[in-house]
Amino acid sequence: MSHKPMNDASKPLVEVNNLGFSRGKHVIYEDVSLSIPRGKVTAIMGPSGIGKTTLLKLIGGQLVPDAGWVKVDGVNVHQCNRTELYALRKRMSMLFQSGALFTDMNVFDNVAFALREHSGLPEPIIKRIVLMKLEAVGLRGAAQMMPSELSGGMQRRAALARAIALEPELVLYDEPFAGQDPISMGVLVKLIRDLSDALNLTSVVVSHDVQEVLGIADYVYVLADKRVIAHGTPAELRLADNPKLKQFIGGEPDGPVPFHFPAQDYQKEMLGERD
Amino acid sequence: MSVTDSIASIGRSAIATVTGLGRAGLMLWGAIAKVPNVAKGTPLLIKQLYVIGVQSMVIILVSGLFIGMVLALQGYNILVGFGTEDSLGPMVALSLLRELGPVVTALLFAGRAGSALTAEIGLMKSTEQLSSLEMMAIDPLRQIIAPRFWAGVISLPLLALMFTAIGIYGGHIVGVEWKGIDSGSFWSILQASVEWRQDIVNCLIKSVVFAIVVTWIALYRGYHVIPNPEGISRATTQTVVQSSLAVLALDFLLTAMMFGR
């Protein structure tokens, strides 16, 4: 199996085809298909608990689907052996929701970690690359700080610097805006868009922060009911008349996705009667 | 519960146990079976030797001293009744070398270092640090598990020897300094009674076996933890309980094999 890039800019970098995935008896995906174009920011949106992070883990080969396949640059991720999978992962990176910085290392060493492991570059060069990445996310001054000394937003930015350290082709962002204050969120939105443009990255942003995502994405997939319920450019989605999509984008508390979790009749329960 | 349910429950437990053993075996195999990268692995090993071994020394040395002193005091009270208090040295030394040194050190190690290993790796899993290593194309079994395993296997036998040595010194304080046994006879009878192969090598064999088991359990429990606070708490408890029981059971087996004839 070859891992050489096909260098065909017209072909999508990531293809997901008829994907099915379950955890025990709980079905998460049925027949999900999507494609992620090269050099673009593609957003995957949907309500909480729908399995958006699971989709990123399936793309990264951390989970194995029950049905269908995932290809990255033409390579079927789940037919790779360990060596082939690791070779593929050197061309992608993931920004985790928690940042996932190594807590026993300072920011500089966190960013330098993958470079020291994989690049074989001498330390003076690594130092320059790390400082460039930290400068790009505005944290060069925090290079010697430990992760526990950083705010949530700074941790996310440091993790972003680490994610782009090896200059990957594909970056997977798992809920990058979750729990951020407006300033940090604005910084992250700008960074994701600017870094994608500057480095010609293919970005996949998983999020339920509708306005932020629609502001930076080139293309959007919306997941619900275990499948893709809509996809298109942000402008197309804003005009769509799918009731579920309108509820999600408008942030309406009740609608096709009900406010109430299914329960027995309220009046009967209050009066102590059983169905 | 019907008979069928009971049988099904036993079957499920058996399958879960065998599955767990298989996962633990695969984890250890994945960590130690590959050719180590000396240049990258040595600094990781040294750091873990410090965390697991050096930082456990205080509890091991203090416990060893007091256990040696208590052993000597109780032993003296019995031996003096038979006029054989000069045998206090070998009694303390052989008790420590053959049983208390490796066993108590392993129990203390499980409580001090084993629980810390489980909690550390469990937290690394719950904060997605292990997943992040995987996504960086770095095998967490080699980066995280292997250095900790080898550090445990190297540290515990050395700690057991330290425990035994300071325990004997504690026995000397009580027997010679306090109870007035002749120092020359304490050391000379001790030296004559302790055999290299029978006592010291067996002490080391026991320690190595306990080290493998305790470290393996601690790493497995951390690596396969349910990544939430309750899961980490339960895994830490399981490490201490299962390690302690495994050490005591294995001690009997090893003692029977070494001294049963």
From TrEMBL, chain B:
Keywords: Cell inner membrane, Cell membrane, Membrane, Transmembrane, Transmembrane helix, Transport
PANTHER family (UniProt xref): ABC TRANSPORTER PERMEASE PROTEIN-RELATED, PROTEIN TRIGALACTOSYLDIACYLGLYCEROL 1, CHLOROPLASTIC
TM spans (from-to): 49-73, 149-169, 200-220, 240-259
Subunit structure, as described in the record: The complex is composed of two ATP-binding proteins (MlaF), two transmembrane proteins (MlaE), two cytoplasmic solute-binding proteins (MlaB) and six periplasmic solute-binding proteins (MlaD).
Stretch forming the signal peptide: none
Molecular function GO labels: phospholipid transporter activity
Cross-referenced Pfam families: MlaE
Principal location listed in the UniProt entry: membrane
Role played: Part of the ABC transporter complex MlaFEDB, which is involved in a phospholipid transport pathway that maintains lipid asymmetry in the outer membrane by retrograde trafficking of phospholipids from the outer membrane to the inner membrane. Probably responsible for the translocation of the substrate across the membrane.
Name of the protein in its database record: Intermembrane phospholipid transport system permease protein MlaE
Family from the record: Belongs to the MlaE permease family.
Membrane topology qualifier: Multi-pass membrane protein
Gene Ontology CC annotations of this record: ATP-binding cassette (ABC) transporter complex
Primary gene name: mlaE
Localization in the cell: Cell inner membrane
